[in-house]
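> @MW can you paste both from yesterday?
MW: sure, first one:
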Amino acid sequence: TTSIFAGAGQGMSQISHALLASGQRLLGMENPGSPRLWQAAQDAGLGLVALPVDDSGLVVEALADHPEVRAVCVGAARQVALGVPLAPPRRAALLDWAREHDGLIIEDDYDAEFTFDGPALPTVQGSEPGRVFLLGSMSKTLSPTVSVGWVVAPRRWVPAVRTEYEILAMPTSLNQLALAHFMESGAYDRYLRGSRQRLRARRAALAEALSHRLPQCRLGGRASGLDLILELPPGSDADVILAEAVRRDMELCDLNGLFLEPVPGSPPRLLLGYGNLNDSVIDEAVGILADIIVSHTAGDLPSVPARSR
């Protein structure tokens, strides 16, 4: 059963309060992961347990080290920080864990609509609806101003998710009705198809420009979502690079700032969002970023000239 809220953060807050009221005290969270979801769970009163992720998503085996944990939040379609899906064997292992330990899964359906190298994997919730909360929103797909999110909760949890904690704000009825009409008319599907085509081409252009201007920097993440990972060269000062980028009117994200708990030895990495990037300025923006990185990295890096048009 679906419950509508003012975004994924509010949906996470309602789930967290419901878990707390049922006697849950801890919630396993991906590390790195979503600070917004951490904050919602912490504000509700849950303690957070950091669980590692790698190129196959959540390391499900790590749950064996935390037998007290009975609920876990996971980005199955796309891990919010590393941009990878939860691999099929990990999905099966996570569902086995939930069944064996009477556990619950909060599936963060983050950016699932934007997968460019093949169809998105089906939701975990579809395999075990009695143990999985599916959490999503329209903030990335359409706009944060739409302010519509949802929780598909196991049937026995629906009353608690809807009423356990006072909801201070809800999406306006007009927004909900307009969104319903947009989806029922088929316009939403057409919008998604067009958006995927534009974003696939934009991502390819950005990756090509980065590979040309910064060949020493590895690109990471699956071809999905609205951002990609740029691994900085050893000796890079990420804090200085971020500060200089802001001074040049460029907003970046330090991926290592998305760790719930620091992981020693994590390489310096930037998360580059391209959802609102104008196609005509990709080469210029990458050129500026390349100059900043070369200027603030220990050692000598080659400076690659911009391509002539």
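MW: second:
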Amino acid sequence: MSLYGALLSGVSALNANSQAMGVISDNISNLNTTGYKGNIALFQTLVSSDSPDRYTPGGVLAKPRALVDKAGILQSTSSATDLALSGNGFFVVAAPNDPTSRIYTRAGSFTTDKDGNLVNAAGYRLLGMAADTTGKLPASANSASLVNVNLASASGAPQATTSIKLAANLKPNQTVNPAATGAAIGAMAAYANTGTGLVPDFERSITVYDTLGVPRTLNMAFAKTSVANQWRAEVYSVPGGATTGANGLVASGTVTFNGDGTFLSTTLASPLSVQWQTVGASFAPQAPQAIALSFGAAGGRDGLTQVQGDSALRSATVDGFAPGSLVGVSVDKDGIISGKFSNGATRTLYRLPVATFTNANGLSSATGNVYTETQYSGAPTVNYANTGASASVTASALEGSTVDLASEFSNMITTQRAYSAASKIITTSDDMLDELIRIKR
């Protein structure tokens, strides 16, 4: 009968508004939760009869809906590993006890755990694509190839010197060195390491690194010959026993300039072939190391010159470095995590992927402010950050909760009033039923 239907309709209203109050309370509780996505309660009617002649009350049903696709305001922080997404998508993380799991979150408050993994406040491990030892990344992100972003395993591996670019001036009115013409090959190297031989008119030392990352010293020496605009040049190690050449000689030749003082040519072999003696007498020499030597472009003034002024070194650009330890990281908008090392080197370590969904609101929420894939969300599309529709990464920032406190309090008031009104339906129906029972008396 209709009175019982009204009573049950009131009960359903109490249940629906109770659920709505639960949604509101959860939203308010997570006002300061990083990356939290607010929920709303959607009410829908329950129809128990479609007869046009008789109305049967059905009531109401509340269904919660997560507004996962709503973005929060970014808030700056002082930590380089606090990350926020600007745009569409989620970080890909794995559960602490299941490294093969793929879970999704916008909560980017990542710090290192005891093993060096980047984890968020709930302990979920950040996943990324790892670069190789040279810093080269895979061409694209692949969900199956994601690994833990681990900073403890990052090391500044040594890099052997592969190029030297020398910029220097040789004095144009330098007195001809009488010993330069006809002197034996390696005469300047012999003088540097034994004290007998050809005294160079200009000499400078350059630090390079061998294949083990050991710093070595190469000298560039020049002596003026009797040929116009020509200098004798040698490259040798100091001490001489550091390389396999006699007195450390690496290369010998000449350098010639144009009449206007610009560099013309050199007979020094390039790349240099340097075979270092490994530290320790019981070890064999290292394999020959190729080092490209550049004195600048022919006809240019970016390298060696012979213009007015004393002989002087302007600059020596040398690559390579010794081993180093990680001292810091940086993350750019493309999600590339770069390591900064104590040897001054910077190397790409990882690149972060971003997972996007056709229906992000269809994801299933889980404890820890994370989401899992469902049939309603569709399968994730995993791409590198800041490519296609994927969000870019903002470092030293966190995404705030999407909860608006004023709106939640307003909803709380209307929900409370609706609950009170529903209770009146029950009490009124009860009074009417009581009146009906009294008819028999």
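> thanks! DSSP finds three helices and 29 strands in the chain.
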